Structure formats: structure tokens, C-alpha cells
Amino acid sequence: MEMTQTHSDLLLLMAACCGLLVVATLIGEFLRSRLHKTNATLTVETYLTRVHSWWGMVFLFSIALLVGPIGIITLFAFCSLAALREFLTLTTKTNADHWALVASFYIILPLQYVFIWWGEVGLFSTLIPVYAFLFLPILSVLRGGKGSNKNVLARISETQWGLMVCVFCASYIPALVTLDIPNYGDRAPLLIAYLVFVIQMSDLMEYFAGRRIGKRKVAPAVSPKTREGIACGAAMAAGLGLLLTWMTPFSPVASIAMAVMAYMVGVGGSLVMAAIKSDRGIKNWGHLIPGQGGFVDQLDSVVFAAPVFFHVTRYYYGG
Amino acid sequence: MRRFAATIVGQLLIFIGHLITAARADWRGIEPVVRQRIYYANHSSNADLPLIWTVLPAAIRRETRAVAAADYWLKNKLRAFIGRDVFHGVLIDRRAEYRTDDPIAKIVEALDEGSSIIIFPEGGRNRTEEPLMPFKAGLFNLAQQRPEIDLVPCWIDNIAHIMPTGEVIPVPLACTVTFGAPIHIREAEEKDVFLTRASDALLDLIPTRGQA
């Protein structure tokens, strides 16, 4: 593999991530020994388990980005698969939906990522909102069987919603590599790292600030997120946006705006997903990522932000 | 050679189980320790047995045998191999007229050898709309003959949606097997009272969620 500017920039960013994780791990261990047997222990333990999972995610994500578009597309195809499985496990369905579910997993999902690989916006931005939207309900009706005329609207819309969030929106993260931005060359993988990094770090900021100084909950019925926490998260996003302008095709001011926008959409996303979890009576979507729950729990904010980030970038900076 | 093949096939089934269902055990009422138990579970799909098999820790799995239908598992050589060698099945013929030995005696024999067993007390796959069919007398007879052994209810969730009866392609949905608190037969407990209590203990493990 030839070492390019993009590669060395990616490596620099990964080194920074590892540095942050080292610091995060040390802080966690320090707090754990200090707060031993107090009420704060649980918060610290949760935080440390999360840090450990991040080590794994940073590692996988780094490899995928270094491999190039095919690496990152494959990684997210598998994330989509895991997320869709978690989501559709909890949706309303009967035997009549079997064909629609089979098609979602084995046709729509792989096809979406093939279209991303081809880089055809016209295909990957319509496959799920248009074709899956229209044809999956047809399949459900044709498959028929017992209960096929019950809860129809709930069944078809919950399946569609799962596909939209777990496949369509998630696929917009790797889709960023397909953007053809003048004077930006092959640096699009950096844009993915930028989006994910800004949102995850700001989420973390919100998590901590919210617990320290948070007072007014924004959606008390579904989530502990507070205005104060979110304000700190947004400030973090703005700071990171400015700091990481070099990774993007944006001007410094535009980078701040994009980072804050992505973060705010992400916050909205995790509130919506929290509301769904609360409705279904679950704490986490799955159990595959220690300390984080499932893939949907980990991806919810990034997934909501990705399509908006993609289309705004494409509109203003696309060739 | 046969045992080696059985081990390989067993591991393969466990791998496929994890791959498709991300199968998970929820030990809600009891710890996963090696101790003689009778696991009784709901039965709605042929994948039920492989799924419990997948989530049991290896040490427990080695000591566990499944009570299964001889008329299903002895139909061809492959099934016989999986039923006998992989799941160490205690094979019972459901058709009384073909039986040569007492099925309960056969299961008790397995228990007396020290094995734990997995049993589906509904006596067949549940194809009704109800979450459970009425239990057959088998569980009661076992509980009466070996009252000291823990009867552990195991609720298998979601498997029916993975592959509804008659379908060939499984959908990869997440599955959880919930293990509840053990029950025991009470002194002089009537058959129907006991079976209802056992059935209720299993129904209590059903997660609440929006299912059609």
C-alpha cells in the first residue's frame, strides 16, 4: 500500500484517538480507585466499560479506513446487518412478513452497499425510500397466511423504519467516500473519521457534563439528556469542528457549523431511539458491544446525522 | 471417529446458532452451574433444541441430554446421527403403538446416570395462536419420580419468527433463552395443579413487547 497524504493524516488521527483513549482509561482507573465504594462507582464502571469497547471500535474503524472504500463499506454493511437484526427483533410482525424480512436482510441490505460501492447516488438514495417502501408491503400481502390482515400498517411501517435507520441512514456513513469534491482528492475517508469522531466525542462530553451540571431534561419521559449537557456537547462539537478543519473541504466557520449541525441531529436521533426503547420496554437494543448495549445503541446518533451531513456537503461542495 | 464427527457437527450448529440469532442466555432465576436439572421449554420450531444447545455453557452442555421424538429423529441417517450423537438424545416414540419400553422409565434412567435433560412438555410443536399448549403428563411423572431434581423453566423467545413453519430461509433475528427460577413438586400435589403451576412459571418469563 502506497503511503499517501490521506493515509498519513488518518494515521495521525488514529494516534490522537489512541492517545485520548489512553488518557480516558487512566482517568477512569484513577476515578475508580478514588471513588471506591461511593455512589459514583457505577457511573465510573459504565464509563470504563465504554472506554474498553472504544478501543475495539477505534481499532476496527482504523483498519477499515486504511484499507480504503471497500474496507469501510464492508465494515458498515456488517454494522447494518447487526443493527437491523436488533431492530427487527423488536418490531411488530407475523408469519405474513417472512418474505419481506428475508428480502430486507438478503436482498435490500447487500444491494444498498453494492450501490454505495458503485457510487450511484440515484440508486442508493432511492432503493429503500422508494423500492423497498413500495415492494416489501406488496410481498407481505402476497405471502398472506394467518394474521396477514392484522396490524398491517404497524407491521409494514416498522419494517420500513428499521430499514431506513439501520441500512439506509447507516450506509450514508461509508457513502461519504463516494463524494466527488473538487480540490479534495481522495481525502473523503477523512470526512468519515471527522463525522464519527466529532459526534462520538461530543456525545461523551454531553454524557459527562449532563451528569455533572445537568438540570433541565429535554425529554424527561425517555432520556436523561439535559439542556446543559447538550449545550456542552454542542460547544465540544464546535471546538472540534474548528480544530479538525484541516480534515475537511470546509472553511473554518463552515466546519464549525457542520460539526454542530451533525451533533444536534445526532442528539435528536438518540432521543428518538430512546423513545422507541422505552416503548418496547428495553434498556438496550442488543448485547454485542460490552457497556454500550447493541449496535443500534452505539450508532443511533451518527446514523441520524449521516444522511443530512452527506446531502448538505454534497449540495454545497459537490462537484 | 463418530464421536469426533459429532463434536464437529455440534460446534458447527453452535456457530450457526450464534451467527443467525446472536443467541443469548438470560439466567434470570438460576445460576448457570453444573448441577443436575430438568430444563423444560416451550416448543414452536425445530430450531428450539439447537438454540438451547447453543446458549448452554459447554460444561453444562456436556452433561445434558435432550428428550426428543424418535419418530422424528430416526427418520433418516443424518437425523439419527444428529439426534443421537450430537444432542445425546433420549429418543422417545410419540406413537404409543410402536413403543417397546416405558418412555418415562427411559428418561429416569438417563437422570439416574447423572445427566441433566431438556424436555418439551407440550409433547410437540406448538402451531396454535396460544403461547403454550397444555402440558402432557410426562413432566408430572418425572417430577414425581425424582422430586429432588430442579425443574427449570426455559422460555425460548422469537424463534418462531426466524423460520415460521413451512419456510426454508431463516431470517436472522436475535433470540434469547430465559432461564427462570426452579420449581419442585409439592407433597401430594395433584397432576393438573402441578402442570398449571409449571406452565405458569414458563409463561412468566415471556418478555413484554409489541408483537402482532
SSE topology sketch:
The complex is a heterodimer of chains A (319) and B (212).
Chain A: H1 5-34, H2 41-67, H3 69-89, H4 98-118, H5 121-124, H6 127-143, H7 152-175, H8 188-213, H9 227-243, H10 252-280, H11 295-317
Chain B: H1 2-21, E1 24-27, E2 37-41, H2 48-55, H3 58-62, E3 64-69, H4 70-73, H5 77-86, E4 90-92, H6 103-112, E5 116-119, H7 138-145, E6 150-157, H8 159-162, E7 176-179, H9 191-203
Parallel strand pairs in B: 1-7, 2-5, 2-6, 3-4, 3-5
Antiparallel strand pairs in B: 6-7
Helix pairs in contact in B: 1-2, 1-5
Your description of this structure?
- Chain A has 319 residues and is mainly α.
- Chain A is built from eleven helices and no strands.
- The longest helix of chain A is centred in the N-terminal third of the chain and has 30 residues, at 5-34.
- Chain A is globular and about 60 Å long.
- Chain A starts with a helix and ends with a helix.
- Chain B has nine helices and seven strands, in the order αββααβααβαβαβαβα.
- A seven-stranded mixed sheet of chain B has the order 1-7-6-2-5-3-4, with helices on both faces.
- In chain B, 38% of the residues are buried.
- The mean pLDDT of chain B is 85.
- The chains are: A mainly alpha (319), B alpha/beta (212).
- At the A-B interface, helix 3 and helix 4 of A face loops of B.
Main sheet strand line-up of chain B: 1-7-6-2-5-3-4
Q: What is the 3D shape of chain A?
A: globular
Gyration radius of chain A, to the nearest Å? Answer: 20 Å
Could you state the order of secondary-structure elements of chain B as H and E? HEEHHEHHEHEHEHEH
DSSP, total strands of chain B:
7
Total count of strands of chain A? 0
- What is the count of helical runs of chain B? 9
Largest interface: A-B, 30 and 18 residues
Assembly category: heterodimer
Biggest sheet descriptor of chain A: none
Radius of gyration of chain B: 16 Å
Terminal Cα separation of chain B, in Å?
47 Å
Taken from the alpha-carbon principal axes, the silhouette of chain B is globular
Distance between the termini of chain A: 28 Å
Structural class by SSE content of chain A: mainly alpha
Category by helix and strand content of chain B? alpha/beta
